[in-house]
């Protein structure tokens, strides 16, 4: 009897191990994925990001945005890094990306160094996930442990990039549903929007707000109009007063009705996220905690694992 019981116990444990461990996308990735095959990976990425951010502080923001635009379009699979060719249309020229996403050369540099250290081992998708985390840390933000083991897509979709990334004209309900479609809660959405504590936006992304909206601090609108005509142009403006510091100033701006994008101010406009925005505006520890947790969640959207996809040799091209 004892041996029968022990057989069932062992079988159950084995079954849990085999099926339980990998039933969610999350469980497929692991922070130690390259610990034997590329032990210096984290140092190589951090060193290169340090150089890039020292050269231009905004690069930390640009790489973070690249990662978001990768993950929201069919998962974190480096699809955004693929160049268009005569026979291939990728995501770089989709509306949210065209003349706007930047930092591709930095990822190229990191990939070259990673290939030199560990040939044909590390995916571009994992490099982007690590680089995004490092950009945040280098600008004074919180850190998190990056799950690894993503593989690179052999396809990309311009139409999915157009349809799945939220536009700056989105209202609160649309923002919540866009994130919900990716398995992220309204709280995740509000915390992740705190990424706008770093970086800049072009006048074309916020001209309508500063000229036509009522829920805006009038002196903030006047200041922004000085370099952004109603007809709009490509001039840049920071999202908050400290665009090179990853802090909670973005939420203070929202509470003061100084959100730059229409979509930013939607988080504080007498709606369901007002209380959380107020909390983040006064409690940087709460923002850091929720941002880090939401980044880990976002970083695990539909990864390609196992034998799916490939390890690209050049992040811009399928092998
Ligand atoms: C909530 C919905 C979001 C909308 C509607 C949105 C929209 C935008 C827009 C329109 C810009 C400026 C683009 C330009 O004018 O060229 C921008 C910049 C940026 N976004 Fe978002 N975004 C959202 C969420 C996020 C998330 C979740 C992240 C990252 C976790 C993120 C990170 C950034 C960063 C860092 C920049 C500045 C990039 C730079 O300076 O190069 N955004 N976003």
UniProtKB/TrEMBL annotation:
Species name: Rubus argutus
Catalytic reactions of this protein: 2 a phenolic donor + H2O2 = 2 a phenolic radical donor + 2 H2O
Site (Transition state stabilizer): 65
Domain Plant heme peroxidase family profile: 28-319
Cellular localization per UniProt: Secreted
Binding site for substrate: 166
Cofactor note text: Binds 1 heme b (iron(II)-protoporphyrin IX) group per subunit. Binds 2 calcium ions per subunit.
Leader sequence residues: 1-27
Binding site for Ca(2+) 2: 197, 240, 242, 247
Annotated catalytic residues: 69 (proton acceptor)
Binding site for heme b: 196
GO molecular function: heme binding; lactoperoxidase activity; metal ion binding
Function as written in the Swiss-Prot or TrEMBL entry: Removal of H(2)O(2), oxidation of toxic reductants, biosynthesis and degradation of lignin, suberization, auxin catabolism, response to environmental stresses such as wounding, pathogen attack and oxidative stress. These functions might be dependent on each isozyme/isoform in each plant tissue.
Protein name: Peroxidase
A GO BP annotation: response to oxidative stress
Binding site for Ca(2+) 1: 70, 73, 75, 77, 79, 91
Cystine pairings recorded for this chain: 38-118, 71-76, 124-315, 203-228
Family membership noted in the UniProt record: Belongs to the peroxidase family. Classical plant (class III) peroxidase subfamily.
Cofactor: heme b; Ca(2+)
EC number(s) stated in the UniProt entry for this protein: 1.11.1.7
């Amino acid at each position: 009897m004892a041996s029968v019981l022990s057989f069932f116990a062992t079988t159950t444990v084995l079954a849990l191990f085999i099926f339980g461990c990998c039933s969610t996308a999350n469980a497929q990735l692991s922070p130690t994925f390259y610990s034997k095959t590329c032990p210096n990976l984290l140092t190589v990425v951090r060193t290169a990001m340090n150089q890039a951010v020292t050269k231009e502080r905004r690069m930390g923001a640009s790489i973070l945005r690249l990662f978001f635009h990768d993950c929201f379009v069919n998962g974190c699979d480096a699809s955004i890094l693929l160049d268009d060719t005569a026979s291939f249309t990728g995501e770089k020229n989709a509306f949210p990306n065209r003349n706007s996403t930047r930092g591709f050369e930095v990822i190229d540099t990191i990939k070259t160094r990673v290939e030199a250290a560990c040939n044909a081992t590390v995916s571009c998708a994992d490099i982007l996930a690590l680089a995004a985390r490092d950009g945040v840390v280098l600008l004074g933000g919180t850190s998190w442990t990056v799950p690894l083991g993503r593989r690179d897509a052999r396809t990309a979709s311009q139409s999915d990039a157009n349809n799945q990334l939220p536009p700056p004209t989105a209202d609160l309900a649309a923002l919540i549903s866009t994130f919900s479609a990716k398995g992220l809660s309204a709280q995740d959405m509000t915390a992740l929007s705190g990424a706008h504590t770093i970086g800049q936006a072009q006048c074309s992304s916020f001209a309508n707000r500063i000229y036509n909206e009522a829920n805006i601090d009038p002196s903030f609108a006047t200041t922004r109009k000085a370099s952004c005509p109603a007809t709009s142009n490509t001039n840049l403006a920071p999202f908050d007063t400290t665009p090179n510091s990853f802090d909670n100033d973005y939420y203070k701006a929202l509470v003061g009705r100084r959100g730059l994008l229409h979509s930013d101010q939607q988080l504080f406009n007498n709606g369901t996220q007002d209380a959380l925005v107020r909390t983040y505006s006064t409690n940087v520890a709460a923002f850091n905690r929720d941002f880090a947790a939401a980044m880990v969640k976002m970083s695990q959207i539909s990864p390609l694992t196992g034998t799916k996809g490939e390890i690209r040799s050049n992040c811009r091209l399928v092998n």
